[in-house]
Amino acid sequence: MIHNAEQSQQAQPGVLTMVSGPVITASGMLGTAMSEMLRVGHGQLMAEVIRIEGDTVYAQVFEDSEGLRLGEPVSRTGAPLTVELGPGLLGQTFDGIQRPLAAIEAAYGPFIRRGVTAQALDRNRAWAFTPTASPGSILTGGDVLGTVPETAHVLHRVMLPPQMRGTLAWVAAEGEYPVDAVIARLEDGTELRMMQRWPVKEQRPYARKMPVEQPLLTGQRVLDCLFPIALGGSAIVPGGFGTGKTVVEQTLAKFCSADIIVYVGCGERGNEMADVLSEFPELQDPQTGDSLMNRTVLVVNTSNMPVAAREASVYTGITMAEYYRDMGCDVAVMADSTSRWAEALREMASRLEEMPGEEGYPTYLAARVSAFYERTGRVVACGVEAREGSLTLIGAVSPPGSDFSEPVTQTSQRVAGALWLLDATLAYRRHYPAINWNRSYSLYFSELE
Q1: How many domains does the chain have?
Q2: Can you tell me the distance from the alpha carbon of 16 to that of 28, in angstroms, rounded to the nearest whole number?
Q3: Of 168, 194, 220, which residue sits at a domain end?
Q4: 237 in the same domain as 91
Q5: Residues paired with 73 in a beta bridge
Q6: Where are the beta strands (DSSP E) in 166-240?
Q7: What totals of helices (H) and strands (E) does the chain contain, helices first?
Q8: Containing domain of residue 56, as a range?
Q9: Cβ count within 10 A of residue 353
Q10: What whole-number distance in Å separates Cα of residue 140 and Cα of residue 47?
Q11: pLDDT one-digit tens code per residue, 335-361
Q12: Which of 10, 156, 202, 372 is spaced 20 to 30 Å from 435 by Cα?
């Protein structure tokens, strides 16, 4: 169902006082929280608070800000940027703020109108729910309420949200229900549904982190033999223009041994994402023989989309990956390219007149990159039922002029466990994948012995 964003309950909206590309300021916003989502102007554009000074807030707009006028209203939503999590994510294509592109295209055509959003999960589709918890059970966050066959080979576990706990008073009988239907109720009256929401910049909790012991098979002999990566590990793929970073990421998404793939196209060219959209539905999953899209979630943020949405896209992708990890799945995230995300951070910091660091990047670049890669790992999920899952991250890095000493490459290299460096000389000789075996390395050999 397509809809315009609901108006904030705030009685007195703020007033737009400045527009500078994707950055806006609004006054009269006392009480607004950092990272809170706003609705800007009469077009109800989506924006996120990134600085607060008195009753004035600075926000980054996730949509084109052209046409905004000073004095237009700015409304609070009372919540940060969140994603919907539940059955129906697999096989979907979202933009950086989890708007389902297929649903928007069906309603408005191939171009996204400003201020228009859509529910990420289809409320009209019914799912076959089988309860596994019984009334009287004492539940904690992460406990499984029931199961749903999301695809022919993926059994979706409907989990209690991490922050909830209580005694189960009622659970729905086996049958078909939409994601927003109440399928359980706690004794305190809390209603539970198959879907839940989670803020994208907050890491989902887990019981404990486990050492990495099993390899992620990539399907590429040069990687599996010489530079392996573990399930729950991380790797970066730096390379200059034309060395095949996107091809490596797409190849791993097609043939690696992960249960679930989350492919994030962050600031990449539209024709590269068009290749993914056209090829993946036609290819078979090497493990199950099913369509490759049935184990894949695509997050598309092409280079012509607003720059502020690039940062949101990588967090949207990894939050959905954490959700499937909590079910006990091995999830692989392909982030192509993290350099575009860093460039977005640099542009936003520049517009905020923050103190620049090396090459103009913000001084907190290292902290942001480290925190992002730290969301990987092999973990025991929350809940009574023992479930082990893993989240593996493979990020492409695009150093300008193949300068591997630039800040994004160096910062990523410090926190990643494997380096798969692409060599322009090998690429120009049509040697693919153009892995430079002299400069690449893996830190996972001892764990995988």
Answers
A1: 3
A2: 9
A3: 194
A4: yes
A5: 15
A6: 166-171, 175-177, 182-186, 191-193, 196-199, 208-210, 215-216, 229-230, 234-238
A7: 10, 30
A8: 2-80
A9: 7
A10: 34
A11: 988 999 999 999 999 999 999 999 999
A12: 372
Tokens of 384: 């009574």
Identity (one letter) of the amino acid at 31? G
Decide if 200 is inside a domain: no
- Tens of pLDDT, residue by residue over 22-76, are 999 999 999 999 999 999 999 999 999 999 999 999 999 999 999 999 999 999 9
The pLDDT score that the predictor gives to residue 332 is 97
In degrees and rounded to multiples of 5, residue 122 shows phi and psi of -70, 115
Residues 249 and 377 in one domain: yes
Q: Are residues 294 and 393 in the same domain?
A: yes
User: What is the Cα–Cα distance from 80 to 36, expressed in whole angstroms?
Assistant: 4
Is the C-alpha dihedral spanning 112, 118, 124, 125 positive or negative? positive
Q: What is the pLDDT of residues 158-212, one digit of tens each?
A: 999 999 999 999 999 999 999 999 999 999 999 999 999 999 999 999 999 999 9
Q: Which of 187, 186, 202 is nearest to 145 (CA)?
A: 186
Q: Amino acid identity, residue 346? A: R
Looking at this protein, which amino acid is placed at residue 227?
A: F
What residues form DSSP beta bridges with 61?
47
For residue 181 the two structure tokens come to: 């239907």
Q: Quick one: 292 and 151 in the same domain?
A: no
Q: Could you tell me which of 40, 400, 128 has the C-alpha nearest to residue 238?
A: 400
Pick from 159, 205, 195: nearest CA to 83:
195
- Kindly give the residue spans of alpha helices, DSSP state H, lying in 168-279: 221, 245-255, 270-279
As a whole number of angstroms, the distance between CA 223 and CA 356 comes to: 37
ω into 257 cis (within 30 of 0): no
Q: Are residues 414 and 266 in the same domain?
A: yes
**303 exposed, middle or buried (CB, 10 Å; 0-12, 13-18, 19+)?**
middle
Nearest to 337 by CA among 247, 436, 405, 432: 247
Residue 394, domain member (yes or no) = yes
In this structure, are residues 46 and 64 in contact, taking their beta carbons and an 8 Å threshold? no
Q: Are 266 and 336 in contact (CB under 8 A)?
A: yes
Domain assignment present for residue 122? The answer is: no
How far CA 10 is from CA of 4, 24, 29, 57, 59, in Å, comes to 17, 19, 10, 16, 18
Q: Are residues 173 and 255 in the same domain?
A: no
pLDDT band at 7 (very low <50, low <70, confident <90, very high): very low
The answer to the question of residue 422 being in a domain is yes
SS3 (DSSP) at 25: strand
